[in-house]
Each structure stands twice: as C-alpha cells, then as structure tokens.
Amino acid sequence: MSTLLKARIADVFEEPGCDKNQGKSEKERKKGCTAQLAPGAAAGGCAFDGAKIALQPIADVAHLVHGPIACEGNSWDNRHSASSGPQIYRTGFTTDINELDVIYGGEKRLFKSIREILEKYDPPAVFVYQTCVTALIGDDIEAVCQRASEKFGKPIIPVNAPGFAGIKNLGNKLGAEALLDYVIGTVEPEFTTPYDINIIGEYNLVGELWQVKPLLDALGIRILCCMAGDGRYKEIASAHRAKVNMMVCSKSMINIATKMEKRWGIPYFEGSFYGIGDMSDSLRQIARLLVQQGAPDELLGRTERLIAVEEARAYQRIEQYKQRLSGKRVLLITGGVKSWSVVAALQEAGLEIVGTSVKKSTKEDKQKIKEIMGDDAHMIDNMTPREMYNMLRDARADIMLSGGRSQFVALKARMPWLDINQERYHPYAGYEGMVELVSQIDRALSNPVWQQVRMPAPWGDDGETLGAVATSAPQATDQQATRFLSEVAAHALGLVPEEVPA
Ligand code: SF4
Prior knowledge:
By secondary structure, the chain is α/β, with parallel strands linked by helices. The protein has a five-stranded parallel beta sheet. It has a four-stranded parallel beta sheet with strand order 2-1-3-4, with helices on both faces. It has a four-stranded parallel beta sheet with strand order 6-5-7-8, with helices on both faces. The longest helix has 22 residues. 45% of the residues are buried. The structure holds iron/sulfur cluster. Iron/sulfur cluster binds next to helix 4 and helix 5.
C-alpha cells in the first residue's frame, strides 16, 4: 500500500465526529471499524465499491474505473440514484486493463481513456477510481490525473480507494477525502443566501431527495449542494459557501462534515428524512442552525407552521389504511435509524412491530427503540435466515420489511416482503415517503399472489425433492413456476424441503 494511501486511511480512522470512534483507545482506533468476519459470512463491498457508491451519484461527471472490467461490473449503477438532468454518471467507463498492462503498467492506457472521454463526452470533470490490480502493479493515478488535468484543462479527480484497503464504509470515507482534497472549495458560487445548506450522505435513491426538496423550497431554503445524490460538479466545488451542513443518518461521509466545520466554520448536524417525527426534527434543526448563522428569526415560526400542516396531512392520509392494516404484524430487518424511525408511522397505521433488528444500530438507536416500544423485547440482535423463516412460517409476522438479501426467506415462507434498503424501488423519505411506505405495505399484504402461492402443489405434497420439482418445471403453470422458484431459493439458503408447510 502506498505511503500516501496509508496516511489517508490513518487520517479517516481518527474521526472526531463519531462517538464510537472517539470511545476507542488509540490502538483500537488504528485498526479501523472493520468487524472480524465469521467464516462463511459474506464480506460485503470492498473499499473501491464504497467510494464508487458514495461518488457515482454525481450526475454530470464521468466515473472512470481504472482496473479489470469486473470491478466496474461489480459496482455499476446498483443503487438507483436518480438524476434530474445529466445521465453520463450511469455510463460505465473502465480502462479494462489486460495481462499486458499488468506487465507494462496501465498508466498510458488510463491517460488515453481520460482523453477519449473528454473528447467524446466533454464532462465538467472525470473521477478516476483506483482498484486492487492497478494499485498492486504500482500505477500512480494521482500523477496521471495531475498530468491530464494540466494537459486538458479540466479537473481530473483521483479516487484512491483500492478494494484491498478495507471495507465499503472505509471506501465511502476515502471517496469523501477525494472531494475534500480536490473538489470542495475550488469554485465560488454565483451568489449566496442566508438560507444555503449542503446535504451530505444523501444519494437520492429512487428520487428520495425530491420528496424533501419541496419542503425546503417552501421555506425558502436552498440546497447549495447535495453530496452526492443528483449532484453536480460545480455545486460540490462551491459547497464551502453553505451556512449549514446536514449529514443524513449514516456516518458514511462524516469526515466531510467535520473537516468542513474545521476549514470553513460550517456547523453540521446529523438528521434523518425517514419517519414523520424525524423529518420534522431535521427541518427544525436546519432552521435553528440557519438562524444561528444569521438568517432572520422568522424562519423558526414558518418552519413550525409547515411542520404542523405536513404532519397533519401525512397522518390523515395514513389513516385511510388503518382499517385494512390494523393488527397486522411487521418484522423489520434493517439497521441504523430505520430500525426505529419508521416505527411511529407504522404504528399510526395500526401495524404491530413484532421485532426490529439492531445489528447495525448504535447505542442511541437502541435507546430510541426502547422509548418507542416500551422495552427491549422487540430488539433482534442477529437473526439468522432460518429464524426469520420460522417466524414467518409460524405466522408470528404477516410481512417482512428488509433488504434484498432476505427476500428469498420470505418467498420461501410464502409471506409478503417489502424492500426498504438501498435497492428499493419506491422512495420512502419525508412525509410523502412514509405515506408511500404504508401504501406499499398495504399492497404487498393484499396482493392475491400470496393466496395462490400458499395453495397445495398440484403435483403432490411438499415432501418432494427439488429434483422432482425441477423435472416438472418445464410444463408448469404460473403457480407451479412460483413454487419452483421458491424451492430453488430455499435450496440456495440451505433450508431443507421438509420445512415447507402444507
Ligand atoms: S476487491 Fe479489488 S478486484 Fe474486487 S471489486 Fe474491489 S477493487 Fe475490484
């Protein structure tokens, strides 16, 4: 690992804005946040993947991956970050290095690729991502980017986060460091207002930022820049003139917030757009900090009035689902703030939360769960797929809300499931988002497919082996095909066919 990269990693491991980090001894802190993997557990994304996830939503720049083609294939466009304009960020650019490059070095190929992108697409900047192979053969992407910047007169930004540097979260932070080192503070905005804010760590998944922006617009608050959802290069370059930074729930890019506070005196707070109460708290915090930074006091009153109207409207719209959803039980397998922030809205719709996972939750998250649900009996520390399956099969929960990885457990148990993690297809932010979430739960629960899927298989009982099901699959009806898929999914999860209920 190069000395520069080592120094940068050591720098991000020292994080004054993270309580957990500050609670560790100096020795522990140097090891970073990587949890020891259990044998057989999935390792999750690499550092390169993390950097790409954090920066790819910048919509008007070209993201060039310097490495073998598989690295780009691994990370390309996997999170539905939406753009209101340019689409170049969704084009997969890679140097696609080969064996000869490994022997002779890939720097020339990288330089040529940058030139080709600039000639063909003319983006305002090119972000160049380092990967394992090109880092191991010693390609100096910083030097190539500097040379290309000078030659072509455009910002060429090196993102030095090769996969072997660590986990995805470290990659998020290394991506943020690239913005701090090469982008933020390099352009002055055309004008500024006392109501300018930056939103950090919001990726505009399925257009969630657009559920929040109208609320800020109504208060006259301007998003000077969003890092990185629906972001533009120039906006990020001029982000240092904002009055307040909001860090959205996760601590993935906290180093931007803490360093901007140190360099430009911009105060920040950590807030969330998930859940009705949290949306309101975030609006209050933004208004309070803006007033503290010089905006007129009347902003506080206007914010409270907007909150009152929006909360009443959201709860009124959720009310219509109460009759159908009342008494239905939800198993919530997510993490962080979502482990509690969506609970109030779900309870308002009459749903009962039978359990919420706290594997990725902080001490504060757990405290919140206790406050909302009365005790810690609902907290699930680490639920295995088999336990989830049993819970759904025994009808101790009517629906599971989780990420895509757990969907096959619900499918196997023939129970409804809703994706609420990063690959989701519906936006759940702000007041609008909570109404959407309740509406999607209602749709999932009322979907007639579950009735059909639960009917006994026409070819026999459930004791049949997968092989027998596979043999009948080519002539199968839709219903048989659905069952076949659930058997295959179960097989992939290692669940035995005898566990399938009649
Ligand atoms: S671990 Fe290395 S080789 Fe694999 S995707 Fe990440 S950067 Fe590419």
